[in-house]
Design a protein that fits this description.
Length: 719
Amino acid sequence: MKRGVALILSIIMLVAVMLPVQSFAAEDSKGLEKAIKIAKEKFVIPDDFKFDYNVSTQNNKNVWYLYWNSKDNTEGISVRIDENGTILNYSRYKPGVYPRQKKFPKVSKNEAKAIADSFIKRINPAAFSELRYQDNNRSSLDDKGYEFIYVRSPRGIPFYNNTVNVRVNSETGEVEYYYCNWDDTLKFPEVKGIISMEQAQSAYKEKLGLKLAYNYAVDDELIRTFAVYIPKYDSYNYCIDAFTGDKIETRDGYYGPYSDYGAGGELAKSAEAVNRETSLTPEELKAVEEASKLLTVQQAEKIARNTKVLELTNKFKLTHSSLSRNWPDRNSYIWYLSFDKEATEDDKEYRYAGVSIDAKSGEIISFYLSNPYKEGETAKCDETAARKAVEEFLKKFNPDKFAQTEYDKSQSDEHLRYAGKEGPRDYRFVYVRKVNGVPFTGNAITVVYDAVNCRIINYNMEWFEAEFPAVDKVMSLDDAYEKLFGQIGLELQYKLKYSDSYARAVNDSQSGAEVVLAYALKPGKPTTLDANTGEILGYNGKPYKEIKPVEYTDIAGHFAEKQIAALAEYGISLGGTEFRPDENIKQKDFFILLSKIMDYYYWTVISSESGDKDIDNLYSFLIREGVVKPEEKSYESPVTREEAVKFIIRALKYTEVADIKGIYKPLFQDQDSINPDLEGYVTIAAGLKIVSGNNGCFYPKNKLTRAEAAVMIYNCLQR
């Protein structure tokens, strides 16, 4: 997480200032006085700072929001304290001056961790005794602070709903924010009489389990499908009761596959929102229509108006249209149409509809209809009746594709947790495509039924053609479980369970919940397994690699051990477990190291094992930045010491100065051996202490070793 997280927290607290302050009785003013005193005892607050406050009620407690700002509003302190005197949030902002180029932080991660620990002990010692630090193994030169996350762990068992977050500035060592998400009213069951891990694993297989499925990824705009084993149920909200071995549905948080869109899931997106690509200009649109014989917007509109379920009368006006390439099938195009019906004296209800249509076949891909409810209206049918109506609709609307699907109850039920205590007024039903008898998670038909007005309001079809590998030789389910438990594993956890399915509306209240002891999959890793190898797969369908500092096995006692290890801590490494410090470094490997102290952002981590495409992209970046010229590209060639200096000085943007002739004083005895065009580069590098001589010589033509390269990069960050 970066500084944006701290700013978001500050904004959340500052917004509360705009809320009306409650009228206070005498005891309320005493509560405010108490909160101010606690804040000023714990934190250094300048006397000349302006003060403001607000109060709200959370879980039947008064919570005080206190704000201090400098007179010019360039610095600020925010503190949130409940009526028991517990500090829930602290945020300190002051402008900082940060170096233009990357450098090692003044405060190490270990030093910052000690500062964070000390801060929590001082602010909330009772909470600290229950905390377990969660190391995310991430240290970045891009971020000027360290994020430390602590999980509440009573009796040593993690309870991921309660956490403490601390951010420490890596330049000053100051705590920039503290966030405590804590409920001190919860009761945690004793760890007595629970089933064993072996019994929990057996129960997981029987009550939850894995399923064989197809998944997909897109490589160079080509769709690649592959067989996987995945959990049958959402692994965050389903677990095994640690006492009985039964399946528990906790409804613990907003981690379902459709959580971004609420009850409507994918379908709650309007036709415009679903447009993931930039709309085509009229000239581009005309060219595409002529080249591909696509439907015109008039033809697409006619299809929409002739589709009975949309109920697009003449009162609905087409207000927006756009044509875009589809995703992930980049050879298809989709028309996105939006219709509005303005309110009138006769019909005071504003209505709208969004439709997406395949621009080649004319098939309706999705639609969304507004469904305003009147106060007091309730559902006229239950889930069973709604599902029956949906399936009758699908048999008529898209019989061929519907016949290739299977109802997926686990996904269909996800939206119920957002319904509120009054129960659902609409239902979502998900039908997953099956290929070779195996569900394909990337394709599905999803329908939302309005149970108040008894009509279909959302329809969305994710469907594309692809080649599917055979699944007759995948690993057995037993082998898949062995991989799952070995690589991810079950963990004894405390979880929140809501007895009422609708108790948790869209807020963070934990009222109505009880803490249960359960076995659940450990968080932090993907739960998708390659069905052939059992490897954990990342979102891109490639083997998942856990982010952690590289630990080399061959640098102990080497003269560059300190520098190589320090770079690796911040992700500046070449991958693998051996650094091979005395080997000559290849040009591409030198650039891998150099790019990591530049502002090079790429979707995957670049290492010596990276493919040609990743290395090509790296070189394209370096050429754009003026670090290397096209004619200098030579991936596998060794790099000389003077060449290395040339590339570094270019990366530091000192090229124009380095190219000035006749102004540099010779520094090395072998100055005559240095390429005359690079004398300025070597002199600047020596002046910046990036390089130094050996017995007064620079040895410009010597091939650079991997260790020497690491020392140069390290010295760049020490400036």
